C-alpha cells in the first residue's frame, strides 16, 4: 500500500495534522446551519448547545471513522467524513421553505468561505515561502483545507435528501413535488450511500478538483 517510510510519514502527518482542518470544515458547516436557523426564528440548535466550535458537541464517531478510512485507502490524498447534523425545527421558521432554503445554503456558504480563505493562504505561501520539507508539509495541509471544503461544498449541494441541495430544490419546485422530497427524506441517507456505492456521484471529485484549481491557481 505504501512504497517507503516517507509515504507512511506523510500519511500520518496528514492524518493527525489534517484532522483539525477537517473538523473545522464540518463544524463551521453545521454551526452555520444552526446560526442562520436561529436568525430565522428557530432556537433549537442554540438550546441544544450546538452554536459552538467545541468539537465534542459535533463529532459523529462514524464520520470520524470514515475520515480515517478514506484517508488511509487514498494514501493521504483524499478524505471524507461528517459531523452530527445540527437540529432544525422548520415549524419555528417564519417563512417556511424559504427560510429552510436559507438555513440549508448556509452550510455550503461556510465551506466556500473556508475554501477561499485556505486558498488565499496557499497563494501567499507559494508567493513568498521558501522551499523545504517543513514548508512542503505546511503547504500540503493548507491545500488539504482547500480540497476538503471543495469536496464538502460539491457533495452537500447534490439535490438528494437529506443533503443541502435538496432544500434548495424543494424551494424551487411546486409544493406537490417538494412534498415528494419530504416523504423520501427519512430514507435519504440510505439513498445517498447507495448512490455512492453505485458510483453515481463520481462527478463530485472532478468538480471539486476544478474548484481547487480555480482557487489555488493551478
Can you describe this structure?
The chain has one domain (5-216). It is built from 9 helices and no strands. With 218 residues, it is an all-alpha fold. Helix 1 crosses helix 5, helix 4 packs antiparallel against helix 5 and helix 4 crosses helix 6. The chain is globular.
Walk me through the topology.
Blueprint: H1 5-39, H2 44-47, H3 61-73, H4 96-128, H5 133-156, H6 164-172, H7 175-184, H8 188-197, H9 204-216
Summary keywords:
218 residues; mainly alpha
The structural class is: mainly alpha
Low-pLDDT runs of 5+ residues are: none
- Number-wise, the strands total 0
Domain unit count: 1
Helix content: 55-70%
Tally of separate helices:
9
Beta percentage is under 5%
Round the mean pLDDT to the nearest integer and report it: 86
Rg, nearest Å = 18 Å
Largest sheet, described in full? Answer: none
Choose one word for the global shape.
globular
Give the topology string: H per helix, E per strand. Answer: HHHHHHHHH
Characterize this entry briefly:
The protein has helices at residues 5-39, 44-47, 61-73, 96-128, 133-156, 164-172, 175-184, 188-197, 204-216. It is an all-alpha fold and 218 residues long.
Amino acid at each position: 500500500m505504501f512504497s517507503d517510510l516517507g509515504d507512511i510519514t506523510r500519511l500520518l502527518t496528514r492524518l493527525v495534522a489534517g484532522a483539525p482542518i477537517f473538523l473545522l470544515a464540518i463544524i463551521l458547516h453545521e454551526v452555520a446551519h444552526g446560526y442562520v436557523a436561529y436568525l430565522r426564528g428557530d432556537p433549537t440548535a442554540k438550546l441544544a448547545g450546538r452554536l459552538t466550535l467545541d468539537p465534542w458537541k459535533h463529532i459523529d464517531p462514524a464520520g470520524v471513522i470514515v475520515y480515517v478510512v478514506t484517508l488511509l485507502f487514498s494514501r493521504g490524498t483524499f478524505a471524507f467524513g461528517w459531523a452530527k447534523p445540527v437540529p432544525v425545527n422548520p415549524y419555528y421558521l417564519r417563512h417556511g421553505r424559504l427560510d429552510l432554503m436559507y438555513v440549508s445554503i448556509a452550510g455550503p456558504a461556510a465551506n466556500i468561505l473556508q475554501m477561499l480563505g485556505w486558498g488565499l493562504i496557499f497563494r501567499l505561501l507559494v508567493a513568498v515561502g521558501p522551499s523545504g520539507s517543513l514548508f512542503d508539509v505546511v503547504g500540503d495541509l493548507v491545500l488539504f483545507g482547500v480540497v476538503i471544503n471543495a469536496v464538502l461544498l460539491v457533495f452537500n449541494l447534490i439535490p438528494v435528501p437529506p443533503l443541502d441541495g435538496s432544500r434548495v430544490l424543494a424551494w424551487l419546485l411546486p409544493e406537490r413535488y417538494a412534498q415528494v422530497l419530504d416523504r423520501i427524506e427519512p430514507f435519504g441517507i440510505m439513498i445517498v450511500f447507495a448512490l455512492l456505492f453505485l458510483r453515481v456521484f463520481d462527478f463530485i471529485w472532478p468538480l471539486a478538483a476544478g474548484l481547487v484549481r480555480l482557487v489555488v491557481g493551478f
